[in-house]
């Protein structure tokens, strides 16, 4: 119980950091989508799409190395591992920047947007500054100092908001002004990350570890293939919509086909914290019952937080999108509803189990097979239906299938019943409770209390939803306060 509580506290700190990242990211996209026309905003989002796509290749899986190797070595040797891997990331960052600059014209032709060539060339210095900043999550989660993750994310995202958005607003600039801001904040992030990476090792002498480049890349390279395949799964829809439907439709898709930020925040935080825990668990060959206890505790708490939010935002999808991006992006709410269905399934975080087991090759092969299938199916959908909505539905369906398949394989590898990893009964209860409450909220807001202002109506609806959810939870034997009890307990003791 103590370990589970500590893991929860660590995950909450990671989650707070992710929340600041998502919140400020949403604010910046909401502002930029209003100041740029659709074509210009679409070009800006295409630049980020290209960057995030190539990022997987040039990081070479190295940020994942920290969460796997650091728990298996003394902290003094961990200092050497961090220094060694950070140098590699800086080298790959320089290579990434050169590739972006040299092949900008080719990429622009591939995506049929000539303006993209100019944007990518201005953007090209950024990767060599940002790649060395990666991996902080694995370092601080290993040494249970995740409060620094929250602090780093908050500082850098605030700087990003100031540097990227303010020039556009004050100078009424184009998307290039936003890129200038990216360059400035990348320099600042590089300096801040360099200092933060040294925090766990203060007053410790560097002791050279026996870890070799071969060991590092033997673990990380299969992750590159897996990450590329995973990215191919996610980016197939972006590619086909960008190529066949133009930047305006791509802008509508990009603003709508997003995960609910809170979901990624929660699952990402849980995954970061559990990775070193599972790595140490398998390294020490501990009893499987301990793993199941940690897993179920994490899954139940994730579902408690996520399912109500998913239900609410599915029903209020149009209001959410219009509030964020204005009425001209109302059609994006359809993409939002399609993608949000995935959030009922991606609370299952299978990656830490596979990676801590060292099953990176199997992880890679399965992702590759699914990626090939996605690209073939999506191309056929373009030919047959010529409708971007069909692409969005296909993407969500494949993502759900991937999650369930990996969970099934984990149960086989560990020889543990599938039902223990996927407590369907509890999840159905959470879903049923939230669904009943949202129906009550719609009845109240449609027939009893109605407001002319969209924002007021949205806030009132969410407040009623949370209130009814908490007060009716004992009927369904659900304790939502169980999520924050570890923090309250720690506060009382201190």
Key attributes of the depicted protein:
single chain, 494 residues, 22 helices
Short characterization:
This protein has helices at 2-35, 38-59, 63-69, 75-102, 104-110, 115-123, 126-130, 136-142, 147-171, 175-196, 213-256, 261-283, 288-315, 317-325, 332-340, 351-357, 360-385, 388-413, 418-421, 424-447, 454-472, 485-493.
Main sheet attributes: strand count, strand direction, barrel closure: none
Give the oligomeric state of the chains in this entry, treating copies of one chain as homo and distinct chains as hetero.
single chain
By DSSP, the count of extended strands is: 0
Mean pLDDT equals 79
Domain module count? 1
Counting helices, strands and paired strands, the structural category is mainly alpha
- Element order, helices and strands? HHHHHHHHHHHHHHHHHHHHHH
Low-confidence stretches: 1-5, 486-494
- Radius of gyration computed on alpha carbons: 23 Å
Q: Helix share of residues?
A: over 70%
Global shape: globular
How far apart the termini lie comes to 18 Å
The percent range for strand residues is under 5%
Determine the number of helices (DSSP H or I, runs of at least 4 residues). 22
């Amino acid at each position: 119980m103590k370990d589970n509580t500590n893991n929860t506290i660590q995950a909450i700190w990671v989650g707070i950091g992710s929340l600041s990242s998502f919140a400020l990211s949403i604010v910046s996209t909401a502002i930029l989508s209003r100041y740029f026309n659709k074509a210009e905003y679409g070009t800006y989002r295409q630049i980020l799409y290209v960057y995030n796509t190539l990022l997987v290749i040039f990081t070479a899986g190295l940020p994942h190395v920290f969460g796997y190797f650091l728990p298996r070595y003394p902290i003094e040797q961990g200092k050497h591992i961090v220094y060694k891997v950070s140098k590699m990331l800086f080298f790959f960052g320089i290579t990434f920047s050169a590739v972006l600059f040299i092949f900008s014209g080719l990429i622009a032709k591939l995506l049929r947007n000539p303006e993209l060539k100019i944007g990518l060339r201005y953007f090209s210095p950024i990767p060599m500054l940002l790649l060395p900043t990666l991996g902080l999550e694995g370092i601080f989660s290993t040494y249970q100092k995740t409060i620094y993750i929250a602090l780093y994310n908050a500082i850098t995202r605030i700087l990003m908001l100031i540097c990227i958005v303010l020039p556009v607003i004050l100078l009424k600039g184009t998307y290039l002004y936003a890129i200038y801001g990216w360059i400035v904040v990348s320099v600042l992030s590089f300096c801040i990350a360099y200092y933060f990476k040294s925090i766990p090792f203060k007053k410790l002498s560097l002791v050279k570890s026996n870890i070799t480049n071969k060991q590092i890349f033997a673990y990380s390279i299969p992750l590159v293939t897996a990450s590329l395949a995973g990215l191919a799964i996610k980016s197939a829809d972006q590619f086909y919509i960008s190529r066949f439907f133009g930047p305006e439709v791509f802008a509508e898709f990009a603003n709508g086909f997003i995960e609910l930020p809170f979901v990624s925040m929660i699952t990402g935080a849980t995954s970061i914290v559990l990775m070193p825990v599972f790595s140490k668990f398998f390294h020490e060959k501990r009893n499987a019952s301990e793993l199941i206890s940690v897993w179920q505790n994490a899954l139940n708490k994730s579902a408690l937080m996520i399912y109500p939010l998913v239900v609410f935002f599915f029903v209020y999808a149009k209001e959410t999108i219009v509030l964020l991006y204005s009425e001209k992006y109302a059609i994006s709410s359809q993409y939002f509803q399609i993608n949000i269905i995935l959030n009922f399934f991606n609370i299952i975080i299978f990656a830490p189990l596979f990676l801590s087991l060292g099953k990176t090759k199997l992880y890679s092969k399965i992702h590759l097979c699914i990626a090939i299938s996605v690209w073939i199916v999506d191309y056929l959908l373009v030919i047959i239906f010529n409708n971007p909505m069909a692409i969005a539905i296909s993407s969500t369906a494949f993502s759900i299938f991937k999650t369930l398949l990996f969970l099934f394989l984990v149960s086989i590898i560990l020889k543990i019943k599938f039902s223990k990893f996927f407590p369907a009964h509890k999840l159905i209860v959470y879903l049923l409770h939230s669904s009943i409450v949202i129906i009550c909220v719609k009845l109240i807001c449609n027939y009893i209390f109605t407001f002319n202002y969209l924002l007021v109506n949205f806030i009132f609806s969410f407040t009623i939803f949370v209130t009814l959810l908490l007060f009716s939870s004992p009927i369904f034997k659900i304790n939502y306060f169980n999520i924050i009890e570890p923090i309250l307990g720690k506060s009382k003791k201190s």
